[in-house]
## 1
Amino acid sequence: MSHLFRLFSSIFLLLLLVSCASTEKHSITEDAAVATGNYRYQAWRLDNSGQFEAINVLLDEADLLIENQSYDAAVDKIERALRIKPEYAPAWSRLSWLALQTDSPKRSVQMAKRSNSLAFSDPELQSLNWSFIREASEMLNDVEAYQRANQKIESLNAF
Amino acid sequence: MSSDKSSPRSQKKRKTKVSTKAKARKRPAKKQLRKTKARFLKRTTVIPLLLISLVLFLGYLFYLDQRITERFEGRIWQLPAHVYARPLELYVGKYISKEQIMFELDYLNYQKVEDLPQRPAQYRNWKDVFEIKTRDFIFWDGEEDSHTIRVTIKDNKVTELINLYTTQGVDLVRFDAGYLTGIFPSHSQDRVLLKLDDVPDIFIKMLLLIEDRRFFTHWGVDPLSIGRALLVNITSGRTVQGGSTLTQQLVKNLFLTQDKTIVRKINEAFMSLLLELHYDKMLILETYINEIYLGQDGRRAIHGFGLASEFYFGKALKQLSIDEMAVLVGIVKGASYYNPKRNPDHARERRDIVLTTMQQVELITQRQKEKLSSKAVMTVKHASSGLYPAFIDMVKLQLQQDYQADDLQSEGLRVFTTLDPYIQFNTEQAIVNTLPWLSKNEELQAAAVVVSPSNGDVLAVVGGRKPSYKGFNRALNAERQIGSLIKPVIYLAALQDPSRYTLSSILDDSEFSYQAPGQPDWQPQNYDKEYHGEVTLYEALLKSHNIPAVRTGIDIGLDNVIDTLAALGSKKSVSALPSITLGAIDMSPVEVATVYQSFSANGFHSPLRSVHAVLDKDRQPLERYSLEVDNKVKPEAIALVNSAMIDVTKYGTAKRLSDSLSIQVAGKTGTSDDLRDSWFAGFSGDVMAVVWTGYDDNRPTTLTGSSGAMKIWKNLFKEVAYKSYRVPEAPGLVRSWVSAKDGLLTGKDCENAVELLFIEGSQPQQKGDCAAGSSGNWFLDLFN
């Protein structure tokens, strides 16, 4: 049940973010993303795809694997993407989310922190990462970290 | 002849017969008695003896049968683990030089052709363009199909990547992973198991035609073949043909010795019959195809056509041409004499015999035979197994956590490692080619570890000046004092408290003495044996002054330094002695690389890993080693240290690097007491490496960090590093112009002005004589 709750709350959060994200960054329309109900990172697809389309391809493959709940295989694809572009914050964020799905909250926190260290100019992604940290903190029964994450999310949303 | 009958000898024989008959007539009773005796004996001894023999024989057959079934029902072979390098991936925008792509294709045994590459593992090249047909390959995350691509490389970057047939752009291509080595059982047999379905029909027909034409009709032993071979051998006066069936050959290889004795032959025949009695012909054929000995690669014995195909031709059996298959079938007759690598002429002769035989039974046409026979025997110059022993040690170390040594040697695991063959090659070259310039003494040793900053993947390991030597692995096991490599750790510990320390903090570089109860005074000195008075932390790090580091370490607490070392990933147990502030800590190059990986990843530590994944013998995933990150130090403080380490390579002890490298790097030199150890640890945006030089017996060298290890590091980075290292932008970090001498705010154009990074709020407030907006010249300022 808690898995389902986490999944739905994450999907809701992501859809919210996708719908709020700047249209400049989108490579698909918001409507399409919402309509397909997908839980993909298309909001953060790289725009200069000519050079780094390889990353988009790998992350799309990861999304398909996630849909089939092949989380380990999805992690492999994302790690390949990160070998190509280690500073690509959304991929680290995706690993954080995947860690939550596989009950690895500590790993989720570290991946989210790594993503945030690279996403200083992207408050939306930072907010998403903090939501993962919040959820992981809940799993770890770390009240202090949970509250800190909550505050971060609020301040980022206000921003 | 009549004369013969009348000869004395024949007369004597006749006489004897006559005499015997006469005696028999004279003594009928005696004869009767003897007959009775014989009958009695026959009943009492011969028949039981025969029965006992029969029982023993049946028992022996039962024993042989047990041996056969035990082996066949259980694990037939101990399969060594096969270890692979990381696969090369190409995409538009990837940094890669033409030299590297040539190296990679050569390493993977791709064949250069003049025309469009038609078959997997072929390529052609002109100017900046490569047209390549890759091999298909099974990775831990799925199968990679063969691609036919055109790659254009300009300015060390892939600028175009298209499908040759459709001319459409290709996003990503992953090559097959190069074979590194095997982890062998004691007998060193190696094989790649094939299912019969993986074996081309034509190959099976060819094999049976040459080795055992009546395989599907005989019962394990073929009397006709034996008779024919006997006849041929008798007429030619020597052994030219064998009469053994495939089953007999298999039995000999699996269960018996190579001795040519009658007992072995009899055993072979019985066991062959038993084998055929128990098992299907197709299973026997499949086992034969995987068992047959086909050559030697150093200590490694090449068994089976699957491995032989890869070893001799660099391709899977199903990808071989008919003439190549004929070479392999030819080897069966004599793995050494017909070895196509060592004796290509013999192999060609034998191949032509195979092709002629094929033509005689119309498996191929006369024209085909002529065309195939005209081709040269081309084998790949395979990198012999057993290379990169230092890296393989590291692989074993990682795998030991999850696997027993026996499993590694016998379960046929496929181990996918992180080794980058091009970086490994260049690391070896940098050591081999630079050491003679550092010292004429051939005992001077070196070791290096190269790591991917972002994920801790170990890209290369060299354990000594002879990289392929399997002896002492200095990269893993030589624990030496790290000297000044500790200084960034001390300053990081200090800078994590910005209320007390910044890069512009003034440190005291004057005579220092440490008193501990019951111990003699400890008086550290600078390398130049001088004191420099008040220096900024930034300058102290750039010039690697010892006393400011000692004072800072003691001021913030030795435990704090030790904790910071641990936070950077070190698992070393270190005693809180003041000498640790001068790097009196014994660490191996791998341990140092663990710590410096954290610096290169801006504070995010990833445990070093040399293995990505392990598959079982059926190529099903067994184990994945996922990327891990851990952040226990303030990224802002790391940014300060890294910004100073960039300047170490521009203005500090490693300033000679900036003359040789076209990209921005960060690093630190390290020299231990009496020049016993020379270290350099540094990173670009894409590679991090630690290099050590010194003597095994710990005697002094004449080398400092910059005159020894750094030269090797520089020669390596010239070849393999493409991306500059830049301190990541982050909120909470500000830059200010300060004087490197007194740490006060200064104008950009003032003397000793340097732009330093500060954690927001910690930047100096006090202005120096030549403050911002001031030229430093009061007369000029009047007019300005």
Note: The two ends of chain B are 144 Å apart (CA to CA).
## 2
Amino acid sequence: MKKIIFILLSLCFLFSIILIAPAIGQKEVAEGLSPETVAWLKSAALGDYASETFDEAALYEAAKTEGEVSVYSYSSRVFKFGPTFEEKYPGIKVKGFDIDSPEMVTKVLAEQNAKNYMADVIFIKDPSVVVHELLSRGLVFNYVPPDLKGLIQKDYREPLLVHHTSVDALIYNNEKLSAPPIDSLWDLTKDEWRSRFLFPDPQKMSEFVEVLAAIIENSAGMAADYKRVFGKDIVLSPGVENAGYEWILRTLNNDLVIMASTNDVSNAIGLSDQANPPVGMTAFSRLRDKGKNPNLKFDVMYNIKPVIGVGTKVVICIANQAKHPNAAKLMIHWMMGDEKGGNGYAPYYVLGNFTVRNDVTPVKGSRSMEDLNLWFADPEFVWDEGQKILEFWVANLK
Amino acid sequence: MVQGEKEDIRIKFSRLRNYIRQPHIIISLVLLLLLLFIVLIPFIKMVKDSFIWHFGDTRLSRSARPGSFTIFHWRRILASQITRNVLLRPLLNSLSTALGVSFFALIIGALLAWLLTRTDLPFRRLLATLAVLPYVIPSYIHALAWLTLFKNDRIGGAVGIFQYFFNLSPPNWLSYGYFPIVLTLSIHYFPYTFLLLSASLSSIDSRLEESGEILGATRSYILRRITFPLVIPALLSSFILTFSRALGIFGTPYFLGSPVRFFTLSTQIYSSITNRIPAAGYILALMLVAISSTVIYINQRIIGRRKGFVTIAGKGFRASLTPLGRLKYPALFLVVALLIISVLLPLVLLVWQTLTLYPGDYSLDNLSLLFWIGRGNTEFAEGEAGILRNPAIIKAAWNSIKLALTAAVLSGFIGIFIGYAVVKGRNTKLANSVEQIFFLPYLVPGIAFGALYLSLFTHRIGPIPALYGTFFLVALVCIAKNLPFTGRAGITAMLQIGNELEEASEIAGARWSTRFRRIILPLSIRGALAGFILVFITVMRELSLIILLVTPKTRTLTTMTFRYQEQGYTQFSSAISVLIVLIVVVGELISRKMGKKSII
């Protein structure tokens, strides 16, 4: 009996190995676009086949026959611009999905691999990954509404349309303190800020890898500011490449407090009636929370050297083989808003988010992005250096 | 000569045919095949996946070619600058947490079991029912309650109740990290030990102890040399259950550990996989499986040697109660205090928190029902509606209920088959291997089990499409992980059904399917129901197992709690947790009612 069971089991085993084997060599994506993709691009009028003019009425007619559009969104605000879209364009149902950016990439890769084309519009952070893992493989395509081309400068249209720039900046509690308590990023490495600098976890939120990357890419600026603050040239720790990495190392060694979300950071710093409030980095757009909660008292520190924060891009594109390309185009056009901000853009027409359209007046109370002292994350640099930065971060967690 | 050989083969063949035609043999073979698919193949696939480049790995190395072989990931985890913080320290933390939790849970559970079964403590029956409740509450609720109580100003923002009232900031070790993780998990897991040990203690004939007394042994000597050795097998089983559960737990260390950079293997697995470096997550999951297998193997060896006690003999049996004397009321006080701390307090704290408008302000004029029934046109929490009006949360609630019911029914059903195969083939190698192999899912810690399924079903395998993102996959993992419970329940139920019942109908000419439908199923369903309820509760409050597998469409209440907590909307996460407890309690009440009705 034992033998029989053994034979049966090993047969099953063999069978299963055979079953698994083809899954192991995940299909390499061929160079160039597949004929199916080219055919779809033609029928959807995308890529090389895109139209030069924007005919809203015709697009709406075509979209109505499609009947719906599914939007993968990195933020829950899809549930705000979705319903307003449905009001504006009756007959098209919006299916919104609130998915974190890394998960969205996994999902899109899995769906494309399985030829299970669920997504139409991809609305996502972390442009470096989108460009290199999706766009370059022909899994998503860029779409810039033709009527907006003249209103958006080139680097916000290529290689992917940027929906808005989001800024992460340093904030302080302005109830307890009448003025920002620091004036340099390097102040955060000083003993008085030990355990009192809050920073969102880059292992969870990729935009903070972008923030760190910008600091490292501009290490010359970091080194110069070190000299301004301490009056001498920076001495790098053994094995550390440049002043940017050195800043990360020193803040980590100064017991930087890792936070789960930007919301946690602004709540922690801004809460009213604190004896010794910390400072920290968070999304500039958190300023909008102040209007909602009278117990929150914080503001951005506008005079920090060398920069007050880092700008990162949020991009928008259409998935390969999307079943509702016309509705997707209409949706993207809607999300880009109009010269007054517009209903579709309304959820993003807030302090701390910056539109890419040059015809829109800034939000009330907001400075224009050019007036802010910022560095911008470069997707190419983030792609090359991002994981190295993250590993440096992880390796130096005490 | 040749003729004889042929004859021989024919006889062997017909023997084989007869052997295979027995229903329980067929069932055993089918079950083994099933097991192959739900445990073994995922395991092999995960090992393989740790040796290949994945799509996201092009970020790690320019030479990455998705799909081809590499040892890069093993080298990165085992020998690189991140080894210490990604592998070694989390490994140490996981081990010390699981051991600490096992130690305290065993002590609390054992003491409680002794007090409630072998002493004259008042209200024993009521207290014994209540003592199981901490298990019903999702484990991370204790963590959230702890934060509500002891959060200090390290992570700033709204302080805990302790600091609010006493204006004193609790030290970090009390608020976060090892100490609160071990404490809250011990409170959650002691019911395992309590249940197993109560059963064992109440089956000890007290005359064994009395004879010791007659021979002049002291109380402590009797306890040490007679009672303790008798319950060692139950204690060791409790240890296994607690240890392997605590090893794979995700929510509690995540909430309580992160603020002080206290990472465990489970939190590192999660962060590797959300960072889209799945191979790293798989390697860490393999480590987790290796640890729990080793510990359980050692444990089995010890149990194996100790197994030989038969305490229930066919003679008179009596369990006398130890009088507690003057200690009676202090003991009662302790037990009640324990139950209040582990059940009532966390729930009250959470409910209170859901009613605070601004987090951290525990004054009366800050109370509000906004997070329960608010219409969502307010400025709070990005304008999301209160949980009873929020379509996303209602959908998640349905998902949870659907998931728990599906898993409970299907794994309960398979459990009956396991019971049948094991009991009918009692003492044959095949039946024994079915029994042992079905314990396997238990050895794989929760989050690692989720990782197994993630690795297998993200891509199409032959005729099976990519299941990632489907409800079916989440249900499958819950069914598989709970088979050890329902299998055990099935075996117990089947043991109580005499063979003669089935034999009688067999003689009367009933086919097997009829026998199964008309005799075995109705008789075993009651016993299997115990497994059913347990699975329903377990799945309803499951986070570690499914956290890697849910997608926006398949979100459950537990993963919604996690999401809100992570984004800093504590009132929402607390309110959903309360909702989970309510559903579990209602579910249990209903299934108890149903259970009574369906008994023939």
Note: The first strand of chain A starts at residue 68 and ends at 73.
